[in-house]
Amino acid sequence: MIQDSGAGIVITSPQGENLEFAVKFGFKTSNNKVEYEALVIGIKMAHEVGGKHLTTYSDSQLIVKQVEGTYEAKEENMLQYLQQIVELKTSFDYFNLFKFLEKKMPKLTAFPSLPVP
Q1: How far apart are CA 57 and CA 110, in angstroms?
Q2: How far is Cα of residue 45 from the mean position of the Cα atoms in its chain?
Q3: How far apart are alpha carbons 99 and 2 in whole angstroms?
């Protein structure tokens, strides 16, 4: 378990503008829970700013594979996160989650449905 962990979230607009957020979790948790928490928060934030096409990145292969359905979530708390993400991603016209390379910074790319001038 990790004490006082956190995550960075970057939402990038179609124009290349970044909204950067840091999230601190003030409780003991696992790496997987931190990854799921950050993903849920990022998806909700992308939805709040009007994103309709969402490409997300995570450094957790386990979570990427669980979201795409290749791996099964067996622990109850991981299953709850997975179900929440499955529900949240239905609010987007396009949603994809990729594993990023260790040296790259994770980000969410949110594209609004309205045309950009």
Answers
A1: 12
A2: 10
A3: 22
Domain boundaries, the chain: 5-112
Give the domain 5-112 fold. Answer: Nucleotidyltransferase; domain 5 (3.30.420)
What are the tens digits of pLDDT across the range 4-15? 677 778 888 888
- Whether 89 contacts 43, CB under 8 Å: yes
pTM: 0.78
Q: At what angle do helices 76-88 and 61-68 cross, to 10 degrees?
A: 60
Dihedral, CA of residue 100, residue 43, residue 34 and residue 57, to nearest 10: 0
Structure confidence by residue, pLDDT tens digits, 20-35: 888 777 767 778 888 8
Strand (E) or helix (H) holding 88: helix 76-88
Over residues 57-82, mean pLDDT: 92
Q: Count Cβ atoms below 10 Å from residue 99 Cβ, excluding itself.
A: 16
- 8-state DSSP, 106: P
The CA distance from 99 to 15, in Å, is 23
